[in-house]
Every structure is written in structure tokens, then in C-alpha cells.
Amino acid sequence: MIELAHRLNEPIALTSANIADSVSSLTINEFESLWPKIDLVIDDSLLTKDRTGPTIVDLSVKQQDHIQR
């Protein structure tokens, strides 16, 4: 993802692949029903076995990143 962001020279916004209040997906097959609504899927295989929510990092202030969650 870092290499992709560097090549694009733009930040990348990522969302979790699930519907609000549903279980987070660990593989692309777990959210197959959403594929028609998705522009791009980057499959990095099984990233983690943890279904907790994603990490949110505030990058709005240059060189002062802050982990929100």
C-alpha cells in the first residue's frame, strides 16, 4: 500500500469490506456480495486473524500523525 501511495503521489482512503455493524471480513470471498459495488479490491491474502475494527490514523497535520483508534 505504501508503494502504491508513493506511485500515485496521493493518499489512499481505505474502507473495511463489510456493511455497518456486521463482522469484518478477513478474505475477499467473505464479502463477495459487495463486489458489484466496489471499484477496486487489493487482495493481500489473509492479513490477520483479528476481526477487530481497523486502525484509523489522522494525517491531517503534516508530520504529526495521530492514531485515532
From TrEMBL:
It comes from the Eukaryota. One of its GO terms (molecular function) is double-stranded RNA binding. Residues 3-64 form the YrdC-like domain. InterPro entries: DHBP_synth_RibB-like_a/b_dom, Sua5-like_dom. This is Threonylcarbamoyl-AMP synthase.
